[in-house]
Amino acid sequence: MPSGGYQDVVNKLEALKAQFVARVVVELDDNVAKLHAVEGNAAGIRTLKQGYEWLHRLAGSAGTFGFQALGSQARKLEETLKQVVEMDSDDLSGLLATVLDEDFYQRLDSLPDLLKADAGDCAIPLLQRAVAEPEDGALQRVDLISANDEVRRELEQGLSRYGYRVAVFDSPDGYRRDHASTGENLAALVADADLLDAVHGVVAELERHSDLPLVFVAHDESFDVRYRVADAGAGGFFTVPVDIPALADRIQQLNEEREERQGGKVLIVDDDDQLVEHYRLVLEAGGLEVVTVTHPPDVIRRLSEYRPDIVLMDIHMGDYSGINLARMIRFQPEWLGLPIIYLSSEQDRDEQISAIAEGADDFIEKPIRDHRLVKEVKARCVRARQLSKLASLDSLTGLLKHSLVKQELAKEFDRCRRYGLAAQVAMLDLDHFKRVNDSHGHAVGDVVIRALANLLRHRLRKTDIIGRYGGEEFVVILPDCSAEVAEEILQDVCGQFAGLVFAGDGEEFQVTLSAGVASLRNFASAEAALNAADEALYQRKRAGRNGVTLYQSQDPNHRDDQETGA
Amino acid sequence: MAELKRIMYVEDEPDIRAVAELALVSVGGFEVMLCESGEDALARVDGFQPDLILLDVMMPRLDGPETLQALRQKPGLAEVPVAFMTAKVQSSEVESYKALGAIDVIAKPFDPMTLSDKVQGIWDQHVG
Prior knowledge:
A: about 575 residues; alpha/beta; Four Helix Bundle (Hemerythrin (Met), subunit A); Rossmann fold; 4 domains; five-stranded parallel sheet; B: alpha/beta; 5 strands; Sig_transdc_resp-reg_receiver (chain B); phosphoprotein (chain B)
C-alpha cells in the first residue's frame, strides 16, 4: 500500500462511513415521508421519480459502506418503483394502487431499522467533524479589499473571530486576478470606500450575483461618501476603526434577507390537471418549489406533509368550493396564519372581496401572464416567510424562541432513540452579564447578546439548533455528535467569544461564557437531558466560569461511560 | 506489457467516488481522475489520457453506455479500455455490456480493500 498504510485507509473509510450515516439518517426521514405522501396519488409521479433516484443512490452506496441489508432492501424498493417510473400508463392511479401496496410501505418503513441494525454490527464511529466546520466542510467566506494594511489586518482578525474565512486583497485588480472564480459560500464583499468605483466595476465585471451583500468602510464619513456608497447598491457602511460586532451583525442580517428572497414553497389546489401542471412548470422555472393537489379531499393531509409557505387555490372546483376548503383549513389552529390565495377567473370585485372575507388572504385573477404569476407568488412567499419567522424567532437574536427550542429538542430526542444515534444538548450562559448591563446599559448588553448569537450561528453547522432560552441563556442542540466533540466545539466558541472586544461608554471590555453539556441518550426524556445540561452549567459556574463542563452522573450505574460506543 | 497507471472513474454518487478514490489511490497507488458525470468525463478526458476508464452504468442525463459511445467518437479514444461498474450483473447483462465495447463489468457494491486488485486483474487479463 503506497501511502499512509492500511490503518490510515481503514480510518478514512470509517470517517466516510460516518458521514454517510449522518446524511442517510436525514435523507431517510425526508424521503420516507415524501413517498408516504404519494400513496395512490397520480399527481405524485414526480415525487416517485425523485424517490426512485434516491433509492437507486442509496442501493448503490449502502453496500459500499457495509450496509448490506439496507442496500439490498433499497434495491428491491428501487426495482418496484422502476415499473411505475418507466411506465407511460393511462391508468396511472390504478397502477400506483397495485404497486404502492401495504408491502411496499412496510418495506420502506423498515429502512431506518436496517440502517440501525447494520450500524450496530460494524460499530460506526460518531461523525468526526472539524471544530470550525459549519457544513459541507466550507466556512462562509468574506472577501475583503483594502489598500490600507491596518484596515486589512483589523477586519481579517475581527471577522475570523466570528467564524468567517476572510480572503484578503490589496486592490480591485488583485481581486479580479486572484479571486477564486466561485461565489460559493461568499457571505459578503467588504471593501474600502476609497476604491468604490473600481470595486463596483470589478463586481459588475465578475457578474457576481447581483444580490451579493456589499459593505464599505471609510475613514471619511461625509455625506458625499455615504451617498456614493448607497448609490453603489451597498448594504452597509462603517467608519474606521470598524465596530466589528456591528459589522458581523450587518453581514448576518444581509445574508438572512438574501435567503428570504430565495425560493418559496407553494401548494396549488385546483381540479384542472392541465392548468395545475402549467402553473407548476411556470413556478418551478421561477425557482419556487411546488406541490399540487387536484383532489381537494387530500388538501389537509398534503398541508401537514409539505408545510408550504403559501397556498394557491381555485375558487370553483367541481363538487368543491375553495371558500369552504379555506374555511376548513382554518379549523386547525396551526393553519390560521397560512396565507391562502385564490386563483380564479372571478372578475367581479364584490365577489372577490366576499371570497377574501371567508378566510383567504388575497386574490389573483386568471388568466394571468406567467411572469406576473411568478412575481406575485414570490412576493407573497417572502412576506409569508418573514411573518412566520417573526412568530417563531427571538426578535433580538433571530434565534429560536424558548418554546420552539424545546420542541426541537423533543424531536431530536426521538430521532436519537429511533436510530440509536448520539446527540448533545448544551446550556450556555454569559458570565456576570448583569455587570455589563449595569455599567454599560441595556443597549450595549443587547449588542453582546447578538454577538454571541452570531458567533454561534457561524461556528456551528446548519443542522445544529440554536435557541435563546431567555435573558442571557442559550440552548444549543448538536445532532450526530459525541460529548467530546461537543465539548471541543463549545470550548472553541468560549475562547472565540472571550476574545471579542466590545465598546461601551468610551471603555473597552470583554465578556466570558460558560456552558454545560449533556448527552441526550443518557436520559429518559428530553426534559431530563436539558436539566442535566443546566446542572453541568451550574457546576461550571462554581468551578470558575469561562469554559465547558460535561454532565457527570452521580450514579455509578449510569451510562456515561458508553458515550462514544455507538 | 503495458502498465496500468492512470484510471478515470466516472460516477455520479459522491459517496462512492470518495470510497473509490481511497480504494484506487490510497490502496492501489494509481493515478486517478474522478468525474461526476458523463459530460464531466468527456470534458476532461483529453487532458488526462487515461489508460483505463471505469464507468458507472446508471447516471442521470448521459448514462454509462451513452458516455462510452461519446468517448469512442473522440480522437485517440476509439480503443481505450472501458469497464462498467454496476449492481446488475446477471450474465446476460454482462454480455450485453461487453457487446457495447466494454472489456469487463465490475459488480457494485465493491470492496474498497480489493477493488484495485480486481481492476489490475481485469487489466492484466484483457490488455496487459
